[in-house]
Amino acid sequence: METRHRILFGDAASMDEVNDDTVDLVVTSPPYPMVEMWDGSFAAQSDAVSEALESDDGWGAFEAMHAVLDAVWREVDRVLAPGGTVCVNVGDATRTFDDFVAYPNKQRVTRRFVDAGYRPLPDVVWRKPANSAAKFMGSGTLPPNAYVTLEHESVLVFRKGDRDFEANDERRYESAYFWEERNDWFSDLWDLRGERQALEGVTDDEARDRTAAFPFEVPYRLINMYSVYGDTVLDPFAGTGTTAVAAACSARNSVGYEIDDTLDEVLGDCFDRLPRLSETVVHGRLERHADFVDDSERDFSYESSVYGFPVVTRGERDLLLRRAVAVDRTDHGFDVEHAPADYVYRNDD
Length: 349
Prior knowledge:
Helix content is about 35%, strand content about 25%. By secondary structure, the protein is an alpha/beta fold.
């Protein structure tokens, strides 16, 4: 099979190249309002943001920045198909103008999608690597004026109605995940320290910081959790292309919008290395399942029709992992050829 990955440089508030109801899943990590590194980007798009920042109006800047994001979310409403899912990776932010304040980005984004008619689902909290175990804010060891540090982010999940599949839909069954992956991925707390972080091959320091802030493992899990082979995944804040690469590794199509066209070369480098990354990711999943089987004392009721190893549930029997084997650059992105992943299970017994 082949997937297509379009990278479009421009403002996602006008996604003219994407037709109505053609996106199955949105996975994105937008710039966070009230995080200083994004002030310039927000201010360039909104005079209201500039004026609020210049006058030290924290709450005015907070709302003006979210108004910029709201324009993108309205386009998401248009292009997302009925039954589609939106996953927004976002964190709250702390900032001092007159006073030190925690600005509730998660609450503001949730309110926006609920008001637009989406159904909120349980979210995921994931821990980022902490810079220091002794880190603190405020007055340190003297009560009551120290503050909790923010070393986590959240993935907010929203559903646009219901999605229907035909009975025994082949794509859906081939897109299954392993039972033990389900238990890990669908937990409400992800500790990703030590998991796959920044994209392989990204060498620019600033770009690497951006990919590490939204590690590959986050969109890769979400894409496998909330879509099937051949679906289209949208990231309206594509950045260094982490979601696009995760979609390619998952044999899904993708569309990404990015306002900073200087990242074009970084995206190209990441896709050049896609086959090697895909092989590593897919083989790792198969090896981990084989280890799970070998270490388990349970009686398995089913066997994989593709790989021959035992599986826990009926839904896993036709699971078929695909890997990227070739990448062609196009005028607007990349075409990726996928092949079924080969694997020979050798039972330790």
